[in-house]
Amino acid sequence: MNLFRTKNIAELIAGTEKHALKKTLGALDLVLLGIGCIIGTGIFVLTGVAAAKYAGPGIMLSFVLSGLACAFAALAYAELAAMVPVAGSAYTFAYASLGEIVAFIVGWALICEYTVGASAVAAGWSGYMVGLLKSAGITLPLAWTAVPSDGGILNLPAILIVACLTFLLVLGTKESATLNKILVFIKLGCVAIFLFLAAPHVNPLNWHPFLPFGFGGVATGAAIVFFAYIGFDAVSTAAEECKRPNKDIPIGIVGSLVACTVLYIAVAAVLTGVVPYSSLDNSEPVAFALRYLSMNFGSAIVALGAICGITTVLLVMIYGQTRVFLAMARDGMIPQRFVKIHPRYGTPHRITAITGVVVCIMSGLLPIHIIAELCNMGTLFAFCIVSIGVWVLRRTQPDIHRPFRCPAVSLVVPLAVLFCGYLIANLPVQTFIFFGTWYVVGMVVYFSYSRHNSTLASGSVDVSHQ
Prior knowledge:
Keywords: Membrane, Transmembrane, Transmembrane helix, Transport
CATH class: Mainly Alpha
GO molecular function: amino acid transmembrane transporter activity
GO cellular component, one term: membrane
Shape: globular
Membrane topology: Multi-pass membrane protein
Structural class: mainly alpha
Pfam family, one: AA_permease_2
Number of domains: 1
Oligomer: single chain
Number of helices: 18
């Protein structure tokens, strides 16, 4: 059997017609969707950890390096998402350009990226909420706020937030986007408050030495904080639910990336300017910085913004996971019975419920000591594949209509692969061990089930509403 068989773009688009998702999103919704996932854990948690352990004040350069890698990959994403406005993101793009087995590997990586990431984010949300309630005089029992390995029974706050967001995603994408929009404006306001309050207290002496760990530390920091940028990948998963995908998807991807990169660099500069970088190794560095300046009220506001920020990250990550599952189920890579679209809400309710249950179990019962780089390997790999896919389609299908064309593709694609590859090389060794194991499991699934049941192998393309 041909492991590298590809799906025709017209077939990919036609395959969504009989079980279509509702088209409810515009360009602003997509930009805010990207910001919702990008501005969250990265800005409120990872900035401090990466500065303290890896890059020092050079964390600013780490964000520039990660931003450049994302910028090149984003241009490739924008071209393919406008050409193939179908759920599934990098998985779908790989199926159209590089073949079935490559698409499955990418989809398998995205499953890990979103599921592990969402579980870790849910646990982080629980920690912030418990801390905020404690500061207000409300102490929740350890038994119901910690996992068994940490002396508790169940991390109930993590389960509750995942259950609520899963239910919202079942009700509809537009409703979810509306909540995301509200929370994004709140957290952007809190970031602005932090910059306004802290910027006047920046002490340039805190930026010396600027590279205490050398440029290698900057590169490692860039690989770590790359987790913060996966939100623009989630924008491409929404292509099928976009009103004008040809125009709005490129705006959503590039717009959210540019806005968030500027904010990240600004926050990193102010954060390391007001607090010695070695003091930032904690779970709430932004709020800590304001407490360091004796601005306790501002710290509480920022903590509220962090909760809003982490909520939107969790919402978008669960959303992205369900759309990848949807695309893989349509193609027969996983059982097609999961692909049913709710007749009233127009959402993939079965896949959404399954995703929510898995994330609830992981975040509620398991010790989530999973650092960001476990998600980053899959994301960086997907970015490389998408970039190469653009170049391949330019060669194999040069005449196909491209609503958005990646500029200077012969330069952008190699740079995207080079930057992403460089960041992969700077990930810790345990990350490679984890993903090596994960990919072995994936290959067992593919060769035992997926390659025999894919729609290309069976000739089955129809999945009914139910």
